[in-house]
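Hi all, posting the design record for the shared folder.

TITLE: backbone redesign
STEP: 1 of 1
STRUCTURE INPUT:
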C-alpha cells in the first residue's frame, strides 16, 4: 500500500431511515423507566448522522529485545556455638541469592489493530458490536476512499500497537525475575481497511437533563441511551403514604403502649425479685422468675399480634395505591406517547 492510502474501504448500507429511528427512540422511552410526564415536557432536537471512520489493519513486526533474567538459588550456612558448659549448639541460616544473566534476541510475528478518533470513544462498545454484519455492506470506490486521510499519526499508532501485541504474545519469561527489559522494532502494515459505521443520534432535553440516543444504521434498530431521566413526581405518593402511616400509628397506639408497659413491668418485677431474693429460697425465686417470664412473653406476643392485625389493612391500602399509581403513570405515559406520535410524526 502507499504511505497514506487505504487498501480497501467499505460502507454499511442503511437498514432503516431517520423517521423509523425516531419512532424507535420514542418507543424505547415509553418502555423504559422514564417519568410519566416525559412526553408532555420533553424537547427533541434534530437528528444527526454520525459517520465514524473505523480503521482496521494487520501488520508484521520484527523486534529486538534485551533484558536481565534473574535465577534464584538458596545459600545455606551452618554455624556452631559452644556454651561455657561445653555443649555445642548448631544453627542453620538460609538466604536467597539472585544471579543475573544478560538475555537478548529477535521476535517476529503478525497481529492486528484498529483505530477510531477519540471523539467517538463514547460509542466504543456500541461500534464494536455493529461491525460484524458483512451482508449489508458495499465497497467504496477510489474517489470515496480518497476523502479519508490515513495520516502519519494514525499509522504510527497502528504500528506501535501491533508491535506491542506481537512482543507480548510471543515473549517468554524464563527464570525467576526480569528487569531492565527493553524492545524496539519495525512493523509493516497490510490490508489496511477503512469501514464507515453510520450512526443516527438525537438529543432530548427534559427539565435540567439532556439525554442522547444513538443507533447504528446497519442492522436492527438497537437504541443506546447516554444520560439519566429526571425523577418522576412522587409528591402525592409521599403524602398518601405519610397519611396512612399516621392513621396506622394512631390505630395501634393502645396495643403498642400496653406492650411497652408489659416489658417495663416485667423488668421492674425482676428487680424486685433480686431485692427480695435474700429472704426467699432459691427454688421459690426460680419458680416466680419463670412464671413472670412466661406471662410477660404471652402478653407481649398477644399485643404484637393485635398490632399486626390492626396494621394489615393500612399496609394493604399502601400496596394497592402503589400498584394503581404505577398503572396510572404508565397509562399517562402511553397516552403521551400516542399524542406525541400523532402530533409530531
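Okay, here is what came back for every position:
SEQUENCE:
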Amino acid at each position: 500500500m502507499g504511505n497514506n492510502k487505504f487498501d480497501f474501504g467499505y460502507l454499511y448500507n442503511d437498514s432503516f431511515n431517520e423517521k423509523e429511528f425516531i419512532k424507535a427512540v420514542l418507543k424505547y422511552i415509553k418502555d423504559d423507566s422514564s417519568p410519566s410526564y416525559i412526553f408532555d415536557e420533553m424537547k427533541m432536537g434534530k437528528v444527526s448522522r454520525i459517520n465514524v471512520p473505523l480503521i482496521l489493519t494487520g501488520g508484521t513486526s520484527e523486534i529486538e529485545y534485551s533484558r536481565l533474567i534473574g535465577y534464584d538459588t538458596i545459600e545455606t550456612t551452618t554455624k556452631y556455638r559452644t556454651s561455657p558448659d561445653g555443649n555445642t549448639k548448631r544453627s542453620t541460616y538460609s538466604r536467597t541469592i539472585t544471579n543475573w544473566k544478560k538475555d537478548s534476541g529477535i521476535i517476529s510475528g503478525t497481529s492486528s489493530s484498529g483505530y477510531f478518533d477519540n471523539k467517538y470513544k463514547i460509542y466504543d462498545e456500541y461500534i464494536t458490536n455493529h461491525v460484524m454484519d458483512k451482508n449489508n455492506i458495499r465497497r467504496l470506490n477510489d474517489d470515496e476512499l480518497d476523502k479519508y486521510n490515513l495520516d502519519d499519526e494514525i499509522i504510527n499508532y497502528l504500528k506501535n500497537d501491533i508491535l506491542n501485541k506481537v512482543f507480548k504474545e510471543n515473549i517468554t519469561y524464563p527464570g525467576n525475575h526480569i528487569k531492565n527489559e527493553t524492545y524496539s522494532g519495525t512493523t509493516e502494515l497490510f490490508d489496511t481497511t477503512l469501514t464507515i459505521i453510520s450512526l443516527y443520534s438525537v438529543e432530548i432535553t427534559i427539565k435540567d437533563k439532556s439525554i442522547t440516543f444513538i443507533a447504528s444504521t446497519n442492522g436492527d434498530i438497537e437504541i443506546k441511551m447516554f444520560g439519566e431521566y429526571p425523577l418522576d413526581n412522587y409528591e402525592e405518593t409521599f403524602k398518601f403514604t405519610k397519611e396512612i402511616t399516621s392513621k396506622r400509628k394512631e390505630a395501634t397506639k393502645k396495643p403498642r403502649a400496653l406492650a411497652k408497659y408489659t416489658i417495663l413491668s416485667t423488668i421492674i418485677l425482676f428487680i424486685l425479685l433480686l431485692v427480695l431474693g435474700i429472704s426467699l429460697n432459691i427454688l421459690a425465686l426460680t419458680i416466680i422468675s419463670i412464671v413472670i417470664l412466661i406471662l410477660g412473653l404471652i402478653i407481649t406476643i398477644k399485643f404484637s399480634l393485635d398490632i399486626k392485625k390492626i396494621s394489615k389493612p393500612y399496609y394493604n391500602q399502601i400496596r394497592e395505591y402503589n400498584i394503581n399509581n404505577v398503572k396510572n403513570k404508565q397509562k399517562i405515559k402511553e397516552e403521551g406517547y400516542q399524542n406525541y406520535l400523532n402530533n409530531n410524526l
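COMMENT: Residues 8-64+108-226 form one domain.
Let me know if anyone wants the other runs.
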